[in-house]
């Protein structure tokens, strides 16, 4: 079985369209979106509509949660709070209702999927976990694989002789040990923060016990210009370049 994992699209329609075109070629059995469809990017409504129309398994991210939980909005920096308020006005009632109904986590094929950290946090970052917390998480998890997003950085976390191993994932295929447990950060479709502005997602082959980082080019300048035209902070455009 092949499962595609997308995370942190952040209103970047051009990046999402590149991924959707690639998914048509890869033909995964399922697609899981780990949240943060909105925020930062200029096309939140169009992105949410695409996700709805394709019928992907979708989860709550902190930017969706901030639409309805003001405590989650206050957790953001001031610039992101303002952006979330504007983004809310750009969403239709149907899209708002969809975001409101999103689940915090889902289990599929011996894997847990969540935006931030297991079991169901949308706010906590993977890098905030100490080694002891990671070891506890892996040892107590009933699932062998935990897929997360939120940090916008592709990362593979595992345990070896009671020591935490944190590795940066790069483009291409990585074989996994079927006897081990892993936490896998799927990076970001629409706003990567790893020095590579390609739209990225993960393709997990459950039979081969492998993950493949798919990295796709798109018209970054188009998205950046639309961000500026929206009146969004220039920093959100600069991040893409």
Outline the secondary-structure elements.
Layout: E1 2-6, H1 13-26, E2 30-33, H2 44-54, E3 57-58, H3 62-65, H4 70-74, H5 78-89, H6 93-100, E4 105-108, E5 111-114, H7 131-140, E6 145-148, E7 154-160, E8 163-168, E9 172-175, E10 182-186, E11 199-205, E12 210-216, H8 220-230, H9 234-238
Parallel strand pairs: 1-2, 2-3, 5-6, 6-10
Antiparallel strand pairs: 1-11, 4-5, 7-8, 7-10, 9-12, 11-12
Q: Which range best describes the helical content: under 10%, 10-25%, 25-40%, 40-55%, 55-70% or over 70%?
A: 25-40%
Number of strands: 12
Gyration radius, to the nearest Å? Answer: 17 Å
Low-confidence stretches: none
Gap from first CA to last CA: 35 Å
Shape: globular
What structural category characterises the helix and strand content? alpha/beta
Give the CATH H-level superfamily: Metallo-dependent phosphatases
Reading off the top of the CATH hierarchy, the class is best stated as Alpha Beta
Return the domain count: 1
The main β sheet shows up as:
6 strands, mixed
Order of helices and strands: EHEHEHHHHEEHEEEEEEEHH
Overall residue-averaged pLDDT value: 95
CATH architecture group name: 4-Layer Sandwich
